[in-house]
């Protein structure tokens, strides 16, 4: 292997880890809703898949609209996570056995899109710099899948310790992450 390839692999791996930490944070919040192991596997897989699809879409968009679409994607993602977090907090105090948002079906798609919109922006940048797209998206998908699973599993442990307050904590994490995207410092 050439040193150029190793350097690019290392840079893309660090970028994939950074994007995957977003998925970890959201997974931590989502894990505080009672989930089965099969659901955890499915959620991680879908979020990982979106971390492949979104950068590919960003690369395809290329230079044409990179600045505008990049910021728009970040704001949409932040808004979605903020709204989902607020709904989780509302559901925690509603004293209902059924979660307000289910991380399945349409709810899972909303979560996956919300957490992977920042990878669309990264894809725009990678498309402009001529990076190896297949290597990049494979790393993005793998890192985000594994980190989502880790967040979900840790969140489920916290859920068992905190009981009914765990969903409110999960919602707070999602709101915090949404605000981080909406109000970059």
From TrEMBL:
Any Gene Ontology CC annotation: plasma membrane
Name of the gene: mntP
Record-linked HAMAP family: MntP_pump
Record-given protein name: Putative manganese efflux pump MntP
InterPro entries listed in its UniProt record: Mntp/YtaF, Put_MntP
Keyword RNA-binding listed: no
Compartments in which it is found: Cell membrane
Function: Probably functions as a manganese efflux pump.
Residue ranges crossing the lipid bilayer per the database entry: 6-28, 40-62, 68-93, 105-128, 134-155, 162-183
Pfam families on file: Mntp
Organism: Bacillus nakamurai
This protein's UniProt keywords: Cell membrane, Ion transport, Manganese, Membrane, Transmembrane, Transmembrane helix, Transport
Mode of membrane association: Multi-pass membrane protein
């Amino acid at each position: 292997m050439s040193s150029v390839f190793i350097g690019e692999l290392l840079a893309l791996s660090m970028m994939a880890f950074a994007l995957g930490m977003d998925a970890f944070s959201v997974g931590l919040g989502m894990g505080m809703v009672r989930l089965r192991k099969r659901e955890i596997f499915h959620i991680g897989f879908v979020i990982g898949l979106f971390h492949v699809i979104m950068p590919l879409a960003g690369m395809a968009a290329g230079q044409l609209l990179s600045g505008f679409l990049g910021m728009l994607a970040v704001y949409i993602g932040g808004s979605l996570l903020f709204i989902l977090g607020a709904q989780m907090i509302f559901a925690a105090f509603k004293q209902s056995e059924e979660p307000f948002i289910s991380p399945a079906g349409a709810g899972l798609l909303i979560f996956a899109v919300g957490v992977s919109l920042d990878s669309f922006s990264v894809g725009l940048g990678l498309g402009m710099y001529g990076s190896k797209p297949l290597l990049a998206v494979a790393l993005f998908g793998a890192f985000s899948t594994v980190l989502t699973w880790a967040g979900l599993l840790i969140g489920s442990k916290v859920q068992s310790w905190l009981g009914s307050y765990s969903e409110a904590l999960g919602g707070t994490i999602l709101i915090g992450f949404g605000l981080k995207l909406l109000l970059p410092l």
